[in-house]
Design a protein that fits this description.
- The protein has one domain.
- The longest helix is centred in the N-terminal third of the chain and has 20 residues.
- It is built from two helices and no strands.
């Protein structure tokens, strides 16, 4: 797995994931679990949805 998620993209994913999980907790809904997806992709620095489109927001190192 080559890292394809950059620093700014990671921050946005962490914030969005935390907000989605928080909304799920607030509204007591299982839909909040969807917030774990952006958190996981940010933590792994790899997004499978970027692969078919050859998107890379990280630096080429």
């Amino acid at each position: 797995m080559t890292c394809n998620v950059g620093k700014t993209d990671r921050i946005i994913r962490y914030v969005a994931g935390i907000l989605i999980v928080a909304a799920g907790l607030y509204f007591q809904s299982w839909w909040g679990l969807i917030g774990l997806v952006p958190i996981a992709t940010a933590a792994l620095r790899w997004c499978p949805a970027y692969m078919p489109f050859k998107i890379n927001t990280g630096k080429n190192t």
